[in-house]
Amino acid sequence: MDLGPLFTYFSAEKMGSWLLVASGLLSLMFAAFLYLERSPLLGMAWPLLAVGLLALTVGVGILQRTPAQVAALQAGFSTAPAATSAAEQQRVAGVIQRFRQYKVVEVLVVVAGFALVFMSPAPSLWAGVGLGCVLMGSYVFVFDSFAHHHAEVYAAWLKQFPAAP
What we know:
This protein is mainly alpha-helical. It is about 85% helix and about 0% strand. The protein has one domain (about 5-160).
């Protein structure tokens, strides 16, 4: 049985997690820079801080759980491929649904950010918050779009297995 798509999916997930860790650290450093410099757009620091902490937490969490998850799936596909596929299809369907929800929220954050930028005098705290929302909402939307695509491809591969008895 060719488990190539399984390894491809989780390899992409691990690479994305390293990107989350790196971007989370950069976001936190940029937020600290804005704070220490007392930037007129200090408000950007709040979205940078929030998304940076979230990215760092999610990235580290995925990196920690992925090796055991891959090992368990590999063992499951060798002993009970139909049952393993059914369980994994259910898990990935939830992941895909959450990506759809996340992207709606991300678009709303970007739209709210643009509204803050256009309704606030620049530079100001609220214009900074708006710029931060536009920047981080856009970044996370693009990131999640790639992850969503990888999950869809993986889900299609999982559907090739016969139904569990």
